[in-house]
Design a protein that fits this description.
The complex is a heterodimer of chains A (131) and B (354). Chain A is built from 4 helices and no strands. Chain A is mainly α and 131 residues long. Chain B has a two-stranded antiparallel sheet. In chain B, α3 packs across α13, α7 packs antiparallel against α8 and α13 packs across α14. Chain B starts with a helix and ends with a helix. The chains are: A mainly alpha (131), B mainly alpha (354). Chains A and B meet through α1, α2 and α4 of A and α2, α5, α8, α13 and α15 of B.
């Protein structure tokens, strides 16, 4: 089976995802009542008149966590291809004559390095929420 | 008897056509796959009803009982009528396109997840065909990627609503997700390591003798917690904490537009339950030792998914909501080390099985 065959149904599903909500909202437009009054379209703020803009500035406590997340996510991405080859890697077989265990050993070293970085971040207090 | 054999052969030949050789087959699978979306939609409805009834039992209440006789079965239809006939309001302060687009993105993410879910493995004339809308070599990676799209939907709703509550909920959602996507990804890799494949069909096949919940119980616990956070259910529903943020990112939504966002959430919960039943509870493999009992595999997948759904509702009834800094702490300081430990464990087991 070609790769494109796997993704044609996915494309059809994207179409479903666009069409179904729009069709439902069209139906709602036909069924639901309409009455205009300016108070109806104000932002809800516990019943009082809204003050200021909604896009306020506030302290994002997890700024450092977000940077750490990018690193960890890339690490996870490295693991995905390794999953399929670690038992019998043809490249390893060609170079070293054996492969089982070698790729695992390498990945454990990689994990150890990542884990050391993780411990370092923890000791530096990056994982703490409240600053 | 001859005619029955002919009919049987015709059906089998059609199925083979349907699954592989015919060049229009992918298009037909995509369109017929709409029925699977409908099925999962029905599952979400069932979950809404089950949740109300079951939570009622947990809290010594009756739950819905007024509409539709003794069990309140028509309550769902009454809700649907209400949602369809409520006025659709887009606040003046909202960013219109983000506001409209948010439920669509969240719902589409759920639909795309359904596309690779296999429900059974059919053996036709010696060849195996997975009963899925689409099969691919990296379906578990694809599944994780499209499930993460829902986060964008929630942040679009939070930012586009033009409300302070929604914005705070959107930021909380990002804070939650960056803590839980990593353990989720690592436990998925742990499962794939044991099966030597990123294909969900292969992962389920690898569980024919022993379920992965038995082979790596810690992975199941980490995955379960991360999944609860991923679908945003109590104790991880800080993004719509009604005591703190009114309704969180859905504050400005009303009527059917809110209904779509709500359904996107339940859609994710149902698909999440099916994924757990596939990658940890053996999928269509029946029970260990007893086997399949000649019951079709799709039945086993659905029964296991319902059990997982009941577990989710039970957790909701039993646990209070966590504070957002506690959520972040659990994700970063507990789940990530446990997930890495589990990866090492499953790699060693996977090598021994190879």
């Amino acid at each position: 089976m070609e790769i494109i065959d796997s993704f044609i149904p996915v494309a059809v599903f994207v179409l479903f995802g666009l069409v179904i909500p729009l069709a439902i909202m069209f139906l709602v437009k036909q069924l639901s009542p309409r009455s205009k009054s300016p108070a109806k379209f104000t932002t809800y703020e516990s019943g009082s008149v809204p003050t200021g803009s909604a896009n306020i500035m506030f302290n994002v406590e997890y700024y450092a966590l977000a940077i750490l997340f990018v690193l960890f996510d890339v690490e996870v991405l490295f693991l995905y291809p390794w999953v399929t080859v670690y038992v019998n890697d043809t490249v390893m077989n060609a170079v070293f004559g054996f492969s089982t265990g070698l790729a695992v050993f390498e990945m454990f070293i990689f994990l150890l390095v990542v884990f050391l970085g993780y411990v370092y971040a923890w000791k530096k207090g990056v994982l703490q929420w409240i600053k | 008897m001859g005619i029955f054999v002919d009919i049987y052969d015709a059906i089998m030949n059609f199925l083979i056509f349907f699954f592989s050789t015919w060049e229009l087959a992918p298009w037909v699978r995509g369109i017929v796959g709409g029925a699977v979306i409908g099925g999962v939609f029905g599952g979400a409805l069932v979950m809404v009803y089950l949740e109300r009834k079951f939570l009622g039992d947990i809290q010594s209440r009756i739950g819905p009982n007024r509409v539709g006789g003794r069990f309140g079965l028509l309550q769902l239809i009454a809700d649907a009528v209400k949602l369809f006939t409520k006025e659709d309001i887009i606040p003046a302060n909202a960013d219109k396109w983000l506001f409209i687009g948010a439920p669509i993105v969240a719902l589409t993410s759920g639909f795309l997840m359904v596309a690779v879910i296999p429900f059974d493995l059919l053996v036709i004339k010696g060849n195996e065909y997975a009963l899925a809308v689409s099969t691919m070599d990296v379906s578990i990676l694809y599944l994780e990627a499209v499930s993460a799209l829902a986060i964008f939907g929630i942040f679009m709703a939070g930012w586009g609503s033009g409300s302070k509550y929604s914005l705070l909920a959107g930021f909380r959602n990002i804070a939650k997700m960056i803590g839980y996507e990593v353990p989720l990804g690592i436990t998925i890799i742990s499962v794939a390591v044991m099966a030597h494949s990123l294909d969900i069909v292969e992962i389920v096949k690898a569980q024919s003798s022993i379920w992965f919940i038995i082979a790596q119980p810690m992975g199941f616990v980490v995955f379960g917690i991360a999944l609860l956070a991923d679908v945003g259910r109590i104790p991880f529903d800080q993004t719509e904490a009604e005591e703190e943020l009114i309704a969180g990112w859905a504050t400005e939504y009303s009527g059917m537009r809110w209904g779509l966002a709500f359904f996107a959430e339940y859609f994710h919960a149902v698909v999440g339950a099916i994924v757990v039943s596939l990658i940890f509870l053996g999928g269509w493999n029946g029970l260990p030792l007893i086997g399949n009992l000649w019951i079709p595999g799709i039945f086993w997948v659905i029964v296991k998914a319902i059990f997982v759904m009941m577990g989710m509702i039970w957790v909701r009834g039993a646990l209070p909501r966590l504070r957002i800094d506690q959520v972040s702490d659990i994700g970063w300081k507990v789940l990530i080390p446990l997930a890495m430990l589990n990866l090492v464990w499953s790699t060693i087991i996977g090598l021994m099985w190879a």
